[in-house]
Each structure stands twice: as structure tokens, then as C-alpha cells.
């Protein structure tokens, strides 16, 4: 770990100013990912600006019947909130499917959105990695990629996004709110993560120096019939192989509304809009679920050793939707 | 840089003796920082000594190192052109009867390949050692599994007289094999202490532990078994290939169970070593037997399947009267008792042996079993007992307690042998100055140390009489052990597993594990049960999770941390039951065999067999990953 300066911000403006003044500065919230990466020197900030104690925590009601989750709300608190559990159960389930109890007690909602990929080449400074060192190459495409992306990747990077929470947020059309030196703003989660393209080191649409302040869940997306299911290499405490967040509204045997997002398959939570539109208005049957899932996955480009993820994602979408009928 | 005391590299490191090694022979992997060659990815190239660990790490990261690349090969396969017959340190290949003729006469023949990946010890305590020179004497506090053996190796390595080296390891946070030899932490700490004339502590990072402490080698095993229609085995042919390093000899003795477990008209075994540019592999959690039993006991299940026979019955029908290869009598063989009692408790009699017939919603359920034998027998050790003037006894033995509770067990053995309460025993262990002693390894620690303590106690009881003056006696078991009659001496187990599998997602969960063990006399039931349960969990972890993955270009382990190298988490561990059938070792004064590793051995095959029973698909490659179980069209 490289030596760094540490400051506890006294307010949002103070935090913005401290980070703006130092190009090597980073915000520190729970630190559950950042500090690990600092230990292996994948991250080497010159200054940490601690925002964990800023008054940005807690879950509040939104005028549209949705919820606003403050950026420094711990993952544990967000998952346990009765309104989250009632209106957005898939979000609570997704958070609880991630990490461990101890980590969820430390990790924040804002920090969770900004966690980095768990691609082993990214975490090993001895290896090339376009995300860590732009232009150095991506070993994963040709070498070890058993748990890498099958959708939306590029020759520059085939890493997956690690968050469970973000998958559910994608399904619920969440909006990320931030403050920045240039003023406040918000970004729909669907646009929050940038396409990999030729710039895998550029991960989010946040302006420079921005601080996430909250995540808003629209009331229109509330769905007590929603579910998150995660398949991984052991029963707990592992990142997703493939996960699905889905909600389903069935009326008279027909799909009135459906939301599907996939985790573990792309550099961002993958909203399955192809499958959704194939299903909307049609009969809610296992055959249709399976066909729609297959249609979504027809865009997949598996590598030598991760083709199983295509089968798994298809099966998992069909299984979760069937459980929601 | 701030705090830096110095750097050790191949230009200034103390010269090391190539004679130092292990049970298997000289180990070139110990010869660190001797030249500019990097024989495997992860090999240390320099040691930075500083005042604080942070200063040392920062300086090590700043150290400029340039590499030239040479051709290397880390890709293991049984058919590798460099494959050669393994060392015969564990005995000659078995060549009983005519395998081909017996296979030709068999009603059913199973001929399959089984594969296991590199696996890592993963002890929670990172490897750490502190070394310093005390005048002419080298002192070290290390974490290892056998201080006397490590001290002897260290003396050889640094060309010192053995009495000039003292190594202690009183408290060790797990070993699993990775602390069985003179570790890099100790060698490097001694180098630092020697060059800079001050105490030096070396603590490895988790990453370094993965890259620099030995794994279990990957194996590829071909098993052919032929059986008559009545289930009697006619032939067993077990060919096992495993990876090694050209730096050191090692044998992953996969065929040990094949040589002793079942009677057959013909038994043939072959062991093949494939040298690759990797860190020398070494013993990990039931070395040899654990991957070997996965192959043998999976193949046995396939024989039962093809015969339409209960896998339990198949095993009962092939009990040997004497060692099937050695011809030697068994000291005591209680496999049948383990199988029958385990089956009774597990409810095996109700099993429908057809696969893929039990559905619970989206899940498929199944059960499986495996049997095994684990060789036992005390190895030479010494112990001293001092009868103190206050009526207490100080026992000194070079034993090692790596978290098993060996210290507690030995206190009971000593109290028993001295016929006093445990409150009068002061147990001192894990100091090479206590004299020769076997290590916490091979499941032979408790048996070996207990025998020495028992002998010392017997001598002491003859000499007691003057309570005013402390009396010390020492016993060494080398001679008495050398006079033991040759026998087949083994512990036995039968493991039963119940699993569920989701064919749509490939998720396998173990719902229940039950192990019945014959391990000789049980010294401490609580500790022995804990050891057996822990072993079964390690077997579960092997079956479902553990897999060292190397980058195919660089040969470097890709998943060299606990985020990437998965071991079973709490949520993976089900209802685990372990118990013991009455047993004793007739030739051991305390009746002990050994409980150390046998829990691990049979578990992977029992789980793989249960997965077949659930899904109808054989899992011949470990771990049983999601992608290996997942079905394209799950019904």
C-alpha cells in the first residue's frame, strides 16, 4: 500500500472541494473494495476523503410513491428497510445475496455502485489489463475467462460488473443522484455504466469529482412480485456466476408488465429489454419465458470457456419468471 | 527508502546446501535466491528487510527487477511427453495376477479417466517466522508441523551442525501440509538475520502463500475395474499421473487405497510423474489417497451401476482376508463395521439405486457412499518426562499442535501412562531441543508422540522413589518400532452423502454427510470428532469448490487469494455427523491408529456418487462446478 493523506469531509461541499483540489484524491465510504485494491496497489490514491459520516444516509419516501436511498446508507440498512422489502423485494434480496454480513455492515449504497470488477487480471498489477493500464492489453479474452462476460464486451475488456445490488436497481429503473463541482445532477442507472468499447477504464457517466448522494427508486417500478436469484460457485460469499433480478405483473394469464436484469454476464447490469418486449402482452407460460430468454441471449458472444453462462442465463430467466407467476 | 535495513538477493544471499530436502529427497525448491533463474511463477527474487512491514513492502514494490523470458511449460496432462515413472518411495507398483486376462473374463468392465485440479492448503494463519542469532546458535520461532524435522532441514540447508539450530513452533494456526517442510518464510528470515545481524521476521501475504507454498498436484487417473456378474472383482488397474517440479521429487500416492481396499484376482498400479515449470507440489490434506480415492471409489460406484448392484453390497462382497497386494495380515480391519453402521444410521437400506428418480420441485436428490483405508503406524519419536519435586510431571516432546488439539490429547495420554490426574501434567511441545520427533503429518502424530510418552512414563515409574529430587527420563521409540512385525495397518472409513442438484442452474448442495470411522483407540472423542468433521468439510470443499487455476501463458496462479480460490463457506456445510466404531491397534501400546486426514479422503467420491444418483450424470472431474452439472434442456 502506498502512503496517502486522509481527511474526513465535514460536508458535501467540503468533500467536493477536497477532491477537486487533488487529482489523486478518492472518496472513501465503506472502503470494502477500495482499501483491498489499495493493498495490492491497483488503487493508489494520494488522498482519501472520507464521506461515510456525511448526512447522506437513510431511506426516504419520494413524492411519486418511490423511495430515495441515501448514498451512505449501509447495504445492511438498505436491505433491511421494511419499505424496500415490501415494494422492491428483489433489491433487498440482491443486497443480501452479496458479500458477507460484516461487509454489508460497512459497505454503502453509493460505494456499491462504484465497486470494481473482480477480474483476476485487473486485481494483479503484474498482469496487463486495459481497465487498469489503458492500452496494456486484455489477457482474459484469450486466457482465463471462465467467469467473464458473454454480452456487450469488447476485445479491450471482457470483465463483468460485480454488484448484485446494481442488477436489481437496473430492473427497477433506478436513478443515481450526485453533486459535483459543476452542480447537482442525476443519471438513470441504464446510462450510468458506460459501454466498454475501446475505453474500459472509463466506467461510469459521473462527471469528474462527482459524489453520489442518493439512489432514487421510481414509484411506478414498485413490485412486490419481484425476485433476485443468484447462481455462484458456492452457496454464499461469492460473486455471481449469473444472476437475475425480475418482476412480473400478470393479469388474466397475460404479461402486463415485466422487468428483467442480468448480473454476471456483462460489464454492467444487463437489462433484458429484448426479452421484456417479447413477453409484454403475451401469455405468461414457461414456453414463452424460455423463448424470450433465448431471444435475449441470442446476442451473446461467448468465449472458449464461458459458453455455459448463456445456457445458465437463459435457464435462470425462465426459472425466475416461472416462480413469479 | 525510509526504514530499509537491506536487501537480500541472489548476489549476496548465504549459500545453501542442495542436500536439504524432504522425505522424498533433496528439494531444489528450498534453494531460494541462489541464482538469477526463476524456475516457477511466484518464486521469490529478493527479500527486503526494513524496520516495519509497511516500509519493507513499499521498498519491495520499488525494487527494480528485470526478467528475460525463457520457454516454459505448465500445462499438465497424463500424456505429456516428459511423463516418467514416479519414484518408488512408497513401494513398488502392484503387479498381481493378469489384469488383461481378468478384464477379458469380466461380466462388466469400467474404464474411465478421473481428474482432480491443483488444490491449496489455505491455512488461515499466514506463514511467518522470526529468526535470530544467539551467539553461535541460530534460533527461530516458526509456524510449522514438525520443529525437529524443520530444524534438521534448516541445519542442512545452511550447513550448520544440527545442535546449533533451534526451531520452535508452539502455536500454529493450521497447516494442512503446507507447513510440513522448511518454509520460505523461515529460509528467508534466517538469510536476513544472518546478513544483517539482527532478528528478522518474515510474514508472507495471502497472495504469496498461494504462490510460494506447495499445492497438491493436479492428477489424471485412469481406472479400469472388471467384475463378475456376482459382483466379485476380477481386476483393478489404476494408473495415476500427477505433476511435479524438476526441482524436487514428490509422489502423490493415488494408488495407496487400490493396493489394500478390495480383493481382486489381478491388481495393477502405476504412478507417473509429469515434470513442469511449477513450484514443487507437496502433501496436502490426505495426500495421494484423497485424489486417488476419488478415482477408485467413483469407479467402484460405476461398477455397481453396471451390475445393477447396491454399491454397499459390492464393497462387502470384496473384503480381502489379507493384504491383496502385500499378502500381509491386517493388524485390524474394521471397514465392514464402518460400512454397516454407517448404512444403518444413514438409512441406506431404503435407497432406490436407480439414478434420477427423486424430484423435489426443481431439484433432483440423490445419495452416495465411498469407503477408504488410510495407512497408519507410529514413526520414531522421543519424549522426556521429569518428575518434579512438587509431584507434578513435565513432559517434553517435539510434537506440534496445528489446531488439532494434539497438546490436549497428549496431556491425557501422559496422565494415563503416569496414572495421575491431568492437572499434574505440564506439557511442553514443538521445540526441536526436545529431540527427534515425527511431525503433525501423515495422520501419525498422536500415535508417534504418544508411544514415546508412554515408554518414557513406563521407565519413569520404575525409577520413582525419591520425591525430593527431580528425575528425568527419556525414551526413543526408534528401536521398538523397528522390531514390529510387518502388517497392513490402516484406519478405515465409510462416508455417506446426500445431495440435491438443480439441473437448470447446475447448483449442487450437500444436504447431509455421515462418516463412520475406525481409527484405533480414540484419545479424546470431542477432538477426534472435530478432526473427522473438519476433514469431511475439506472433502466437500474439494468435491464442489477448490481449484487452483493457472494462467495458460504465464503459468502464474490466477486465483491466488480467497476471493478467487473458493473453499466451502458455512452455507455449503450441511448436517455433518462423524462417529467411531470400536477399534484399537493391537501393536500400539495405546491402541492408537490416527484420525488426522481420513475424514477428507472418501468424501469427494461419496458426493460425486450422490450427484450421479441425483442427476444420472457421472462427475469424473473435480470440482463439480455449475457448468459441469448445468443442463441445456432441464426437465
Automatic annotation (TrEMBL), chain A:
A Gene Ontology molecular function term of the record: oxidoreductase activity
Q: Which domain of life is it from?
A: Bacteria
Domain spans labelled FAD-binding PCMH-type: 1-222
Pfam families recorded for this chain?
Answer: CO_deh_flav_C, FAD_binding_5
Q: Which UniProt keywords apply?
A: Oxidoreductase
Oxidoreductase among keywords:
yes
Q: Which InterPro entries match?
A: CO_DH_flav_C, CO_DH_flav_C_dom_sf, Diverse_Substr_Oxidored, FAD-bd_PCMH, FAD-bd_PCMH-like_sf, FAD-bd_PCMH_sub1, FAD-bd_PCMH_sub2, Mopterin_DH_FAD-bd
Protein name, as recorded: Oxidoreductase
The species is Phytohabitans suffuscus
From TrEMBL, chain B:
Please name the InterPro entries in this protein's record. Ald_Oxase/Xan_DH_a/b, Ald_Oxase/Xan_DH_a/b_sf, Ald_Oxase/xanthine_DH-like, AldOxase/xan_DH_MoCoBD1, AldOxase/xan_DH_MoCoBD2, AldOxase/xan_DH_Mopterin-bd_sf
Source taxon at top rank:
Bacteria
Among SMART domains, the record links this protein to: Ald_Xan_dh_C
Query: What Pfam families does UniProt report for this protein, alphabetically?
Result: Ald_Xan_dh_C, MoCoBD_1, MoCoBD_2
Signal sequence residues: none
GO MF terms listed in the record are:
iron ion binding; oxidoreductase activity
Task: Kindly give the SUPFAM superfamilies that the UniProt entry links to this protein.
Answer: CO dehydrogenase molybdoprotein N-domain-like, Molybdenum cofactor-binding domain
What residues does the Aldehyde oxidase/xanthine dehydrogenase a/b hammerhead domain cover? 1-71
Keywords, in A-Z order: Molybdenum, Oxidoreductase
What protein does this entry describe? Oxidoreductase
**Which taxonomic lineage is given here?**
Bacteria, Bacillati, Actinomycetota, Actinomycetes, Micromonosporales
